[in-house]
Structure formats: structure tokens, C-alpha cells
Amino acid sequence: MNALDTVIIGSGPGGYVAAIRAAQLGQQVTLIERNVIGGTCLNVGCVPSKALLQAGHTYQEMLHASKFGINATATLDFEKTQTWKNTQVVQKLRSGVTQLLKKNKVTVLFGEAKFSSKNSITVSSADKSDEYSFNHAILAVGSRPIEIKAAPFSSISQCYHKA
Questions:
Q1: Which of 82, 99, 118, 140 is a plausible cystine mate for 15, CB 3.0–4.6 Å?
Q2: What is the average pLDDT across 110-132?
Q3: Who's near 112: CB < 8 A, 6+ residues apart?
Q4: Which stretch of 41-45, 76-80, 141-145 has the lowest confidence by average pLDDT?
Q5: Can you give the residue range of the structural domain that contains 64?
Q6: Confidence band (pLDDT; 50, 70, 90) for 150?
Q7: In total, how many domains does the chain have?
Q8: Are β-strands 112-117 and 120-124 bridged in parallel, bridged antiparallel, or unpaired?
């Protein structure tokens, strides 16, 4: 069994910030993520939705630019907007978080973590499963919505699930 000092499960805004700060305070930190660095907020939630809103506001301003004496034709290419959001916003921010983790010597493991006891976890990925003991743990796993009878998921358009 591998021994870890501080383990943090989840790399969203709670997890990666906790990992960096714990490392700055002298802890040997291992961050475990089952998907991609940055969590829901950075990759498919808050950040990309705000980027799309900004693109929409810019388009709207272009449509009304003539009131300022600016004559321009605005067309919307949503595929290019999506590419911009994914490459120039999400990927750059994810890369920045990854670099901050490296700079602060945070070890990152990809896989799903499950507690095997109060001071040990198993991290499983598609090709392997490893067990670790630890001294300290921080859970920063985020949340998931629950379906309520008054507003079942089937009544919500898929376009609202992820930006």
C-alpha cells in the first residue's frame, strides 16, 4: 500500500485551491480526479456558460453598433463560437490550473477514489487499481442534481445540461 500525506478528492475550484494551499503550507499533496482537471465549473458549467454569454452579448452589441456610428455586418457562426469557448477559454484555463498544480508539486492521480477504511482509499482507473493510506483527506467532489417530481429531467432540454 502506498502512503500519502494529504489526499484531496476532486479537482474543481474547491479541490485544486485546497491542494495548492496545502502544498504551499508544506504538505505532500495528492489530488485525485476521475474526469478532467477543473471539475464541472471550469469544463462544462460556470466558465464556459459565461464565455457563451459574453459571445452573445458581443454579437448583440454588433447588431446595434450603428447607433454609435459604427456600421458593420454581424453574423453568428456558432461552431466557431464553440471552438473558441473550448480552446481559448476552457483549455487555456485548465492548462493554467494544471501548471499551478505542477508548480506547487501537487501529485495528480486520475481515477475514481473510494474509501476502503477511514485512512485508506482505492483509486481505480480503466487499466489499474491501487490502494493508498493517508494522514489527511479533503473531499471536494462537488454535487449532482436530484430529480424532483415537479420538474423531471425529461422536461429539460439537453442544451441546458452542459455548456
A1: 140
A2: 97
A3: 34, 123, 124, 125
A4: 141-145
A5: 2-142
A6: confident
A7: 1
A8: antiparallel
Residue showing cell 494544471: 98
Specify the CATH number for the domain of residue 49. 3.50.50.60
Task: Tell me, letter by letter, the H, E, C secondary structure of 35-57.
Answer: CCCCHHHHHCCHHHHHHHHHHHH
Question: What pLDDT score was predicted for residue 155?
Answer: 66
**pTM for the whole structure:** 0.85
- The C-alpha R_g of the chain, in whole angstroms, comes to 21
30-74 tens-digit pLDDT: 999 999 999 999 999 999 999 999 999 999 999 999 999 999 899
Query: Residues 41, 101, 136, 33: is their CA dihedral positive or negative?
Result: positive
- Letter for the amino acid at 162? K
